């Protein structure tokens, strides 16, 4: 693993490895090699690993499991451009193949900023750590979003990666979109008779896909600045959600079939015709959020005072096919929102006729089906009901389903599934490069439009639901953003 | 189940609610968020009224109060699943946070459902322009909870906006129902009216304003010893229709050519008023029209 000292590795990846070991899901002889610039030996790294496990693992700590896992933990010190480091890495892996019996099967996890991808992949190739021509033993690579910063760079990255690794061996990880979530959505859509008949333009007026984070950029200035909300999460996470909610039924859930449907719907999706009217971007300013005083984006450590990076991005996507023609999909992603929430809301058309007095139904909103992704994954159905003890007052009520309360079994942490799938070579839910490229094709015109404008994103106070232009964008179409 | 959180944030409160929910069961079907902003003196009564309203309307109730100025932090107390179907979140704001209450409330509003703000006592001068008021689609004040109800209600008439109501108005519902049905049964037009109530009784004044706005005839407002509204007289060409309640409990109704009748017209608890008010969340147009007539009714009284 490259990037073992990063936040993600410490909080999620290393603990997930331990949790897998604890559940007995790791293959015998599993070994873990960290590579990084720190001047650590195996022991120092093992201590660091242990600390992160104790702080963040989800399963209970069992010394005997840890002892066994620790036997296969190594650290190799070196920079990404350090030939000697990679030679050491090669030797260490070869030694583990011998002592632990890993038989030359290796997965390289690149938990590093995108600027490092090229170098690491080149180095792996140069030092003969990967042999693309052989199927067995296998060599796999895991890369994390963002997959490039536009279509051209994504294609360039793909060229580099595929020159060293086979297409099937490349795992692109969207750490927000766990496999469980994808499977839950597939089950809801394709295992039920109730929803499919209304899953189209005849009944759905528009769809809102939201990913709101209550945190700011924290210590990620170096990564975030210049990337922004659209590249950070809309390109990968939100467009994947859009694909899953809008695609046709796949012939089977086999990897290729599922991918084919996602690619089809992404190819039919496009940026809005009027970029002026149907895109919005914002940047948070200092304020009080969730009872805490927080800084504005431009005052965050490591951010240039004239940065034009957006922390709020929203735009409309249209899908030109029979099912969705005329149904706008509104995507929004932002930081420093009032609360952390990811959801997909299918907003229904109004009833064709309401045999009530106007004042009776004044409080009745649109019926909605909301797929809650996090927190409290579940489904909410919203519809009108009569208020008791009134002549005929109709008001919205909700029916909630919680995965957490209906199934007491905790679903495995997304990273555990991801790591396990990589080890098993099971890639169905990871996007392949074609999906990544199609997503950039939707996003590129919007990013170009924003880049051309050369002015500050619109300000919004931290802890509020975004800039006025975002509200205006929906109002123009006769809708309002849900308060999620 | 009561959970206490010291020096906390909205995100931590949200997590605690989720945790509590998972142990007491799902909270499906909460219909709105009620924001109650009592002063320290009103707190206990407001809390009880919220619980009662929460029984009729399963909802998330957020009660916000000011704490000490010596520290700066947010404390929260969550009542979940013990007495009511919904949730009560009591927030105490210390220090500068007192001026940023909405920052803690906004994240805790239930998704996509109505928000109602209720000030049991002292309320902002212009409720719909207030920061908490702006979070809400319905704003409920209570002139009777202030030191000078009459002046408060008159001031409120100057700022009242769609979505606002005052519990003074809710207290009049039974009176209004009785008077309206009386007039349905007597075809002869009303030529003038008179309302008597305790000195400084805002309800009496508002009742007079309502009658003026609906009937378009002069209606006088006169002070007597109370308690509350003591009587209404509507003069018609046929004779007087009267509704008298001298003791605050039983009222007597008289009309031309009908024998006097007794009706129970008890003064009601705040909790009952609040529950009634929460049944309708759309703008009360009749209230707005009556409030528009309020200043001229006061002047008519003085003149």
Automatic annotation (TrEMBL), chain B:
Source domain of life: Bacteria
InterPro entries per UniProt: G6PDH_assembly_OpcA, OpcA_G6PD_C, OpcA_G6PD_N
A matching Pfam family: OpcA_G6PD_assem
Coiled-coil intervals: none
Domain Glucose-6-phosphate dehydrogenase assembly protein OpcA C-terminal: 162-290
Domain Glucose-6-phosphate dehydrogenase assembly protein OpcA N-terminal residues, every copy: 52-157
PANTHER family cross-referenced by the UniProt entry: OXPP CYCLE PROTEIN OPCA-RELATED
Entry protein name: OpcA protein
């Amino acid at each position: 693993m490259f990037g073992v000292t990063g936040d993600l590795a410490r909080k999620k990846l290393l603990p997930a490895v331990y949790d897998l070991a604890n559940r007995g899901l790791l293959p015998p002889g599993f070994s873990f090699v960290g590579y990084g610039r720190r001047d650590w030996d195996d022991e120092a790294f093992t201590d660091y690993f242990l600390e992160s496990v104790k702080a963040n693992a989800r399963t209970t700590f069992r010394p005997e499991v840890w002892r066994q896992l620790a036997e296969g933990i190594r650290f190799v010190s070196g920079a990404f451009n350090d030939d000697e480091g990679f030679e050491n890495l090669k030797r260490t892996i070869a030694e583990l193949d011998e002592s632990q019996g890993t038989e030359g099967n290796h997965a390289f996890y690149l938990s590093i900023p995108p600027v490092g991808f090229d170098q690491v992949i080149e180095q792996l190739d140069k030092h003969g750590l990967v042999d693309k021509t052989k199927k067995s033993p296998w060599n796999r690579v895991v890369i994390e979003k963002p997959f490039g910063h536009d279509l051209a760079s994504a294609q360039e990255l793909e060229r580099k990666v595929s020159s060293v690794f086979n297409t099937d061996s490349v795992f692109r990880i969207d750490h927000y979109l766990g496999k469980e979530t994808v499977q839950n959505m597939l089950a809801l859509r394709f295992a039920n008779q109730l929803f499919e008949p209304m899953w189209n333009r005849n009944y759905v007026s528009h769809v809102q896909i939201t990913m709101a984070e209550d945190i700011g950029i924290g210590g990620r200035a170096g990564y975030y600045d210049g990337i922004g909300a659209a590249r950070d999460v809309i390109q990968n996470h939100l467009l994947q959600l859009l694909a899953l909610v809008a695609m046709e039924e796949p012939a089977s859930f086999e990897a290729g079939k599922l991918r084919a449907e996602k690619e089809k719907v992404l190819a039919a999706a496009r940026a809005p015709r009027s970029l002026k009217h149907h895109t919005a971007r914002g940047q948070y300013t200092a304020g009080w959020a969730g009872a805490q005083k927080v800084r504005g984006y431009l005052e965050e450590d490591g951010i240039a005072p004239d940065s034009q990076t957006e922390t709020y991005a929203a735009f409309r996507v249209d899908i030109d096919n029979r099912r969705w023609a005329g149904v706008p999909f509104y995507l929004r992603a932002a930081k420093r929102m009032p609360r952390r929430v990811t959801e997909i809301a299918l907003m229904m058309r109004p009833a064709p006729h309401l045999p009530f007095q106007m004042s009776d139904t004044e409080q009745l909103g649109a019926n909605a089906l909301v797929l809650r992704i996090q927190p409290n994954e579940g489904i909410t159905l919203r519809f009108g009901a009569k208020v008791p003890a009134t002549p005929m007052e109709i008001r919205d009520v909700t029916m909630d389903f919680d995965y957490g309360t209906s199934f007491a079994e905790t679903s495995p942490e997304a990273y555990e599934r991801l790591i396990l799938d990589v080890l098993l070579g099971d890639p169905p839910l990871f996007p392949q490069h074609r999906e990544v490229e199609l997503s950039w094709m939707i996003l590129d015109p919007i990013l170009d439009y924003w880049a051309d404008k050369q002015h500050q994103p619109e300000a919004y106070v931290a802890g509020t639901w975004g800039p006025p232009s975002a509200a205006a964008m929906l109002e123009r179409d006769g809708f309002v953003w849900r308060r999620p | 189940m009561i959970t206490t959180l010291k020096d906390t944030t909205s995100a931590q409160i949200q997590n605690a609610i989720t945790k509590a929910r998972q142990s007491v069961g799902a909270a499906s079907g909460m219909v709105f968020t009620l924001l109650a902003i009592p002063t320290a003196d009103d707190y206990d009564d407001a809390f009880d009224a919220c619980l009662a309203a929460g029984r009729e309307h399963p909802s998330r109730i957020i009660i916000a109060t000011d704490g000490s100025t010596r520290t700066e932090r947010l404390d929260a107390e969550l009542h979940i699943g013990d007495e009511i179907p919904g949730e009560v979140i009591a927030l105490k704001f210390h220090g500068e946070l007192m001026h940023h209450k909405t920052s803690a409330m906004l994240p805790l509003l239930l998704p996509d459902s109505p928000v109602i703000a209720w000030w049991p006592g002292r309320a902002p001068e212009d409720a719909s322009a207030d920061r908490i008021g702006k979070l809400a689609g319905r704003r409920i004040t209570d002139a009777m909870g202030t030191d000078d109800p009459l002046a408060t209600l008159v001031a409120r008439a100057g700022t009242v906006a769609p979505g606002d109501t005052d519990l003074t108005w809710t207290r009049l519902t039974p009176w209004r129902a009785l008077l309206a049905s009386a007039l349905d049964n007597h075809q002869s037009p009303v030529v003038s009216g008179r309302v008597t109530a305790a000195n400084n009784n805002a309800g009496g004044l508002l009742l007079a304003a309502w009658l003026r706005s609906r009937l378009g005839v002069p209606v006088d407002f006169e002070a007597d010893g109370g308690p509350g509204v003591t009587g209404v007289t509507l003069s018609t060409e046929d004779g007087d229709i009267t509704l008298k309640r001298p003791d605050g409990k039983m009222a007597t109704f008289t009309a031309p050519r009908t024998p006097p009748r007794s009706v129970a017209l008890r003064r009601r608890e705040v909790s009952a008023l609040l529950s009634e008010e929460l049944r309708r969340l759309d703008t009360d147009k009749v209230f707005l029209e009556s409030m528009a007539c309020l200043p001229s009714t006061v002047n008519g009284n003085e003149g």
